[in-house]
Each structure stands twice: as structure tokens, then as C-alpha cells.
Specification:
By secondary structure, the protein is α+β, with helices and mostly antiparallel strands. The chain folds into 2 domains: about 120 residues, MutM-like, N-terminal (N-terminal domain of MutM-like DNA repair proteins); about 120 residues, Orthogonal Bundle (Helicase, Ruva Protein, domain 3), CATH 1.10.8.50. Helix content is about 25%, strand content about 20%. A 4-stranded antiparallel β-sheet has the order 1-6-7-5. A 4-stranded antiparallel β-sheet has the order 2-3-4-8. It has a two-stranded antiparallel sheet with strand order 9-10.
């Protein structure tokens, strides 16, 4: 096993919008189909693929798909597939006879002659099977969904009380809020006009309201754009997302802020790159 069950990693790509994009591309294609088996070419992903996966899914009907944080959950009448794309993973629907490439580790075979192919050059993703995903060690500890009705300024204010960590680190803590990785934390904090280094516990209720609204706005726009393709992400159709074309700060070190003309600054924060406009984002 490459590692024990982790906290959901907040440095991992793809983030929530990318996973939502993949789910949207697959749900209508998979729901109602039956799985006829699986071809496993490489078990050693972040955690080993179950040896009996082919037997467990053979004959199972896909009932639907859900997203929890950065995880895809595929519901069948025999249990749930738990999928994480890691840093470089992708899912594609291909003819089942299509020869696999060197990083095509797994095919889930469908009753229409196609296969759902899992590709992952870095092997940081996973594909697991669970009878009860909501109590699985990967899923159970996850925090509030930022696009849910329960996430708002009051919820963020309550989560941030007494916390000395930076507000950016809080946004990326999957035990508190799921699915917000580095890209969308940077973009949301810029949109709300908040310095990412500010201690979370110092945010007023008003500024928490601004930030919660910014998080939801940024994530929804990113979903419409198909996510951000910074490294390896492509959707089910093989096309990259294009939200990165409209990034306000992320990846724009030394460029001018579109709002005030100040040079965007990059720094290291918690081992990750942080981008901000020193003029627009105040402590």
C-alpha cells in the first residue's frame, strides 16, 4: 500500500470544479448501464485496487453518480465505486477493444461495448469499492460542501472562530470545507478582497459573508468553464478546461491586477504558491 488512509489532500488536482465536470460528462452515459467486468492492468495506485473488483462489479447496474469533495462516487446495485483522480488521472469512455496506453491502468467494461478507462501517469489516484461509502475512512471525515445550502457566511464564521491558521489554509482544510484547492482558494480570496495570510479567526461576520459568496461564485463559474487545466486535467471528452484563461491572480505573478493595475505578487504559504494583489487584498 502506497500510504495509509489520508486526510483528503488539498494540494491535489483536480479540484471540485474539475471533478464536477467529469461527473457531468459521465452521469448520463453510465446511469442505467450494466458493468460486465473489469480489466485491471495495474493495482498499485495510491491505494491498491481491490483484487476482486471484476467479480464485484460483474453484472452490476449503475444507478447514478455523486460527488463528495474531490471524490467521484458511482452507485451500483451492488455497492459504490470510489474514484479519486489524483494529480494526473482521467476517466474516458472508449471502445472496449481500443488497445491501452502505458498509463491506462483499469477498464470498467460496459454492456454497450464501451469501457470506462482510468488513466493515471503518476498513480496518485484511486479506484476502490465500498458497500457504505459514507462511512469509508476517505469520505466520513470530509467537511461541509461549499456549494451546499448550508455553506454561507454564518457557517464560515462559525468554522473560523478561534483559529489562528491563515484563512487560505482554512479554506483548503478538507475536514472543514471540501473541494477547495489552491487555485480556487487564491481566486476566491482575491474576489472577496481578503489577504490570504490573515488569521481565520480575525475575519468579521461581514467579511465571512463576502468570502463565502466569492467561493460559491468562483466555483460555479469554474464548473461552467469546465474547470482549470493547469497540469494534466482533461474532461471526459479529452478537452481541457478553460477557467484558467480568466484567473484573476493564480499563476499571474508579476502581471498587473485587472482591477487596480498593481503587480500581482507570488509567495510561499504552507508549502504552496499563494498569489495576491497587495492593493486589493487587505488584512
Amino acid at each position: 500500500m502506497r500510504g495509509s488512509w489520508p486526510h483528503a489532500s488539498s494540494t491535489t488536482m483536480p479540484e471540485l470544479p474539475e471533478v464536477e465536470t467529469v461527473m457531468a460528462g459521465l452521469a448520463s452515459e453510465l446511469t442505467g448501464r450494466r458493468l460486465t467486468g473489469a480489466r485491471l492492468r495495474q493495482r498499485q495506485l495510491r491505494w491498491p485496487v481491490p483484487r476482486d473488483l471484476a467479480a464485484r462489479v460483474r453484472g452490476a447496474q449503475v444507478l447514478g453518480m455523486r460527488r463528495r469533495g474531490k471524490y467521484l462516487l458511482v452507485q451500483t446495485d451492488r455497492g459504490w465505486l470510489i474514484v479519486h483522480l489524483g494529480m494526473s488521472g482521467s476517466l474516458r469512455l472508449v471502445p472496449s477493444v481500443l488497445p491501452p496506453g502505458p498509463h491506462d491502468h483499469l477498464d470498467l467494461l460496459l454492456d454497450d461495448g464501451r469501457a470506462l478507462r482510468f488513466t493515471d501517469p503518476r498513480r496518485f489516484g484511486c479506484l476502490l469499492f465500498s458497500d457504505d461509502p459514507w462511512n469509508h475512512p476517505l469520505i466520513a471525515p470530509l467537511g461541509i460542501e461549499p456549494l451546499s445550502e448550508t455553506f454561507d457566511g454564518d457557517a464560515l464564521y462559525d468554522l473560523s472562530r478561534g483559529r489562528r491558521v491563515s484563512i487560505k489554509d482554512l479554506l483548503m482544510n478538507a475536514h472543514l470545507i471540501v473541494g477547495i484547492g489552491n487555485i480556487y482558494a487564491n481566486e476566491s480570496l482575491f474576489e472577496a478582497g481578503i489577504d490570504p495570510r490573515l488569521a481565520a479567526g480575525r475575519l468579521s461576520r461581514r467579511r465571512c459573508g463576502l468570502l463565502a459568496a466569492a467561493v460559491q461564485s468562483v466555483l460555479r463559474r469554474a464548473i461552467v468553464a469546465g474547470g482549470s487545466s493547469i497540469r494534466d486535467f482533461v474532461g471526459v471528452d479529452g478537452r481541457p478546461g478553460y477557467f484558467q484563461q480568466g484567473h484573476a491572480v493564480y499563476g499571474r505573478d508579476g502581471e498587473t491586477c485587472g482591477s487596480c493595475g498593481t503587480l500581482i505578487r507570488q509567495m510561499r504559504q504552507g508549502g504552496r504558491s499563494t498569489y495576491l494583489c497587495p492593493h486589493c487584498q487587505k488584512r
